[in-house]
Design a protein that fits this description.
This protein is α/β, with parallel strands linked by helices and 355 residues long. It has two domains: 19-261, Rossmann fold, CATH 3.40.50.300; 266-331, Alpha-Beta Plaits (2-Layer Sandwich). 32% of the residues lie in helices and 23% in strands. It has twelve helices and 14 strands. A six-stranded mixed beta sheet has the order 6-7-8-3-9-10, with helices on both faces. The chain has a four-stranded antiparallel beta sheet with strand order 2-1-4-5. The protein has a four-stranded antiparallel beta sheet with strand order 12-13-11-14, covered by helices on one side. Strand 1 and strand 2 form a beta hairpin. The two termini are 33 Å apart. It binds adenosine-5'-triphosphate.
């Protein structure tokens, strides 16, 4: 049965290996109906001038054993989409099938193997120890906790919680509590889990640990994961596929590799104390500027300039009196892809009229 868990705010960002770069093959069992199938889903909130279309005619399929990331700015509709998929929010239009079961035909069957960690919702029992929480949530998922004790040990071990197994959750740090929330979601052996911002509030090391465990669960145990995050590192490291949402609509749906490949272009980042509005405007006359960071020390400008254009760029900078402190090539990341597709950064609020 779907259950929600706590997720804290204020996540770190750091970089580690992507699954694409590792060349992993997920052992997804693609036989049988998909884990999740959403068709024409629409959800509006409010009425008249106040009406907001949070999810606007969204269709997507999540194959068993795959890890799909939902990426989008604040208010893009990620949480509403997840809540509709979980049956917590009833859509105005469209259908949701979980492992082939239309949720309108019976929630019990549809959500038997589903669990979730939703932002802001309380989950664990703070008076119970970490292990007691895992046993409790396994029990309410209909699983004999003794039969999954080894799984719980493995989860605690992988999430660096083993030495806290007998500690009451209230005595843990916020980041540890969040890892316990995740462990609780996974405690009953759900086959499809929805994770809304799982790394928010985690320190760099904990976020890395959590990502590694999610990837292991997908690759080794065939767990199907739908994860929403603003944290590009998490999306890149954990997901096979990314669905980008903006203003309630899907603006891209593809593998991480394909999205990054499509955005492939040769860009260079130039750092110089001489970069100011005037010199940047001069560069813009002859080059496509990808990004300007005036807060950086020294300021930087990222310019699309592959091949011979790089020589043109250095000539133009010299002519403009810009002394280059540093110049390096820049690989596109998902943030850049998102920016290209929507004109909005994924960690910025959604813009536009949604009525
Ligand atoms: N219960 C509600 N009542 C009214 N409006 C809502 C409700 N829930 C969501 N919305 C609106 O629907 C839109 C989509 O919100 P949603 O929370 O799904 O976005 P999100 O992509 O998850 O954003 P965030 O990244 O900030 O969590 C927003 O404009 C939001 O204000």
């Amino acid at each position: 049965m779907a259950r929600s868990a706590t997720s804290a705010r204020g996540g770190p960002r750091e970089r580690d290996e992507t699954n694409a770069a590792r060349g992993e093959e997920s052992p997804a069992d693609r036989s049988g109906p998909p884990a999740l199938s959403v068709d024409g889903l629409t959800k509006r909130f409010g009425e008249g001038d106040e009406a907001v279309t949070a999810v606007d005619d969204v269709s997507l399929t999540v194959e068993r054993g795959s890890v799909v990331g939902l990426l989008g700015p604040n208010g893009a509709g990620k949480t509403t989409l997840i809540k509709c998929a979980l049956g917590i929010v009833i859509p105005d239009a469209g259908s949701v099938r979980v492992f082939g079961n239309d949720v309108r035909d019976g929630r019990r069957a549809a959500y038997a193997d589903v669990d979730a960690m939703l932002e802001g919702a309380r989950n664990d029992y703070w008076r119970l120890t970490v292990r007691e929480n895992l046993r409790y949530f396994a029990t309410i998922s209909g699983v004999d906790p003794d039969s999954v004790a080894a799984r719980h040990d493995r989860l605690l071990d992988r999430l660096d919680l083993a030495d806290k197994a007998d500690t009451p959750v209230r005595d843990l740090s916020r980041g540890m509590k969040q890892k316990v929330s995740l462990a609780s979601v996974l405690a009953g052996g759900a086959e499809l889990v929805f994770l809304d911002e799982p790394t928010l509030g985690l320190d760099v090391e904990s976020a890395r640990t959590l990502r590694a465990e999610l990837r292991r669960l997908a690759v080794e145990e065939g767990l199907t994961i739908v994860v929403s995050s603003h944290d590009m590192t998490t999306i890149e490291a954990v997901c096979d596929r990314v669905v980008m949402l903006s203003n309630g609509r899907i603006v891209a749906d593809d593998s991480v590799e394909a999205l990054l490949g499509a955005a492939d272009r040769d860009a260079v980042r130039v750092a110089s104390p001489d970069l100011n509005a005037e010199t940047v405007a001069g560069v813009r006359e002859s080059f496509e500027i990808v990004d300007v960071d005036r807060e950086a020390r020294p300021p930087t400008v990222t310019v699309a300039a592959g091949g011979d254009r790089l020589y043109d760029l250095t000539d133009a900078l010299r002519a403009a009196g810009v002394t280059v402190s540093d110049i390096r090539t820049v690989q596109p990341d998902l943030e850049e892809v998102f920016l290209e597709r929507t004109g909005t950064a994924p960690d910025a609020p959604s813009g536009g009229d949604r009525r």
